[in-house]
Amino acid sequence: MLTIDFVRLTEVAPEEIAAHMSDPRMAEHMPLLTGTWDIEAAKAFVVTKESCWRRDGLGHWAILLDGTYAGWGGFQKEGEDWDFGLVLKPERFGLGPRIGRQALAFARADARIPSVTFLLPPSRRHLGALARLGAEFIGEITHAGTRFLKFRLETA
User: Fold this and answer.
1) SS (H, E, C) the chain
2) What is the pTM (predicted TM-score) of this model?
3) How far apart are CA 111 and CA 9, in angstroms?
4) Of 18, 44, 73, 100, which shows the fewest CB atoms inside 10 Å?
5) Is 115 exposed, middle or buried (0-12, 13-18, 19+ CB in 10 A)?
6) CA gap 89, 70 in Å, rounded
7) pLDDT band for position 123 (50/70/90)?
8) CA 8 to CA 5: how far, in whole Å?
9) b/e map of 116-154 (b: 16 or more CB within 10 Å)?
10) Domains along the sequence of the chain with CATH
11) What is the pLDDT of residue 109?
């Protein structure tokens, strides 16, 4: 059985993050993913995500499967909401539900997180997993000039 660990992004080589985010399959459902992801972009990304940890005491993690980088994700404060994001390497897409359940167990145990939101691009068609979790559709929103579907899951 695979061991899933959440560690800080600083524990992963920027080259791994750059290679992950440069895969053209990543942009299919990530409308905000633009530009080139080189090592400098990956380093800047980590700096930005670390600032969330300093500001909010929580942020995105690197996700390791049996010690190997599989992607990143976690909770980021967006206004009053704790938004959950999960960005896995394409060969690990099938593990999203399992990783998501572990992350949501973390959220349920953390008193700071009474609910979690999910922003998904309208191109995402398979939303049954969110319904099975009990997430409710809130509506369409615009974030950074792009349209998203917003869902909320109560964790308290």
Assistant:
1) CCCEEEEEHHHCCHHHHHHHHHCHHHHHHCCCCCCCCCHHHHHHHHHHHHHHHHHHCCCEEEEEECCEEEEEEEEEEECCEEEEEEEECHHHHHHHHHHHHHHHHHHHHCCCCCEEEEEECCCCCCCHHHHHHCCEEEEEEEECCEEEEEEEEECC
2) 0.89
3) 23
4) 44
5) middle
6) 6
7) confident
8) 10
9) bbbbbeeeeeeeeebeeeebeeeeeeeeeeeebbbbbbe
10) 4-154 (3.40.630.30)
11) 96
Tokens of 117: 């939101």
Q: In this structure, are strands 115-120 and 81-88 parallel, antiparallel, or unpaired?
A: parallel
Query: What digits encode the pLDDT tens for the residues 11-28?
Result: 999 999 999 888 776 666
Q: What average pLDDT does the chain have?
A: 89
Question: What pLDDT is attached to residue 120?
Answer: 85
Residue 4: its pLDDT value, please? 96
User: Hey, what are 26's tokens?
Assistant: 């990543």
Q: Which residues contact 64 (CB under 8 A, 6 or more apart)?
A: 3, 4, 5, 6, 7, 70
**88/96 Cα distance (integer angstroms):** 7
Q: Which amino acid is at 78?
A: E
